[in-house]
Structure formats: structure tokens, C-alpha cells
Automatic annotation (TrEMBL):
Keywords: Membrane, Transmembrane, Transmembrane helix. Residues 65-87 have a biased composition (Gly residues). This is Uncharacterized protein. It comes from Streptomyces coelicoflavus. Residues 49-87 are annotated as: Disordered. The chain crosses the membrane at residues 24-43. It comes from the Bacteria.
Length: 87
């Protein structure tokens, strides 16, 4: 018998298994993607969390409380001074 059948070395199979990620990792990534998709869907249904929070600032309209009235904070102090000469 010239051809001897040698068993494969365990090192060849071990190195291939060492490079492959564990199957639990695939399940975790699938669960992570599913949770992201569900949270994104719920967030898009719920809408913005504050008035005027549309995501685009190209409208040119200032949101209330941005100090647009000379830094008085949008309170009634600035309005009283502007309307003082009317009455």
C-alpha cells in the first residue's frame, strides 16, 4: 500500500473555525437591526418631540425663545415697553 490515508490535521479545521464569527453574533446583529427598525418606525409615527422641530432650518422662521426681540427672552417686558405710547 503506497497511498496512506492520513487523517486531516486538527489544526486546519481549527484555524477555519477561529476566523469565522460565532453563530451567536449573527443572532445579535439580527436582533439589533430589528430593534433599530422598530424604534425608527415608532419615532416616525410619533413625529417631532417639540413644536417647530422639523429638522430643516431653511424656512427662515425663528423659533420662539431664540432672543429675537433684543435679548429680552420673549417675555412681556419688551412688549410693555413697545406698547407704552399707544394708551
Amino acid at each position: 500500500m503506497t497511498a496512506e490515508s492520513r487523517p486531516k490535521s486538527p489544526e486546519a479545521g481549527a484555524s477555519a473555525r477561529a476566523l469565522a464569527p460565532p453563530p451567536v453574533l449573527y443572532g445579535f446583529l439580527l436582533l439589533l437591526a430589528l430593534m433599530f427598525a422598530v424604534s425608527y418606525a415608532v419615532g416616525s409615527v410619533a413625529g417631532p418631540v417639540a413644536p417647530g422641530m422639523s429638522g430643516s432650518s431653511d424656512t427662515g422662521v425663528e423659533a420662539p425663545g431664540n432672543g429675537g426681540a433684543g435679548g429680552d427672552g420673549g417675555g412681556s417686558g419688551g412688549q410693555d415697553m413697545d406698547m407704552g405710547g399707544m394708551g
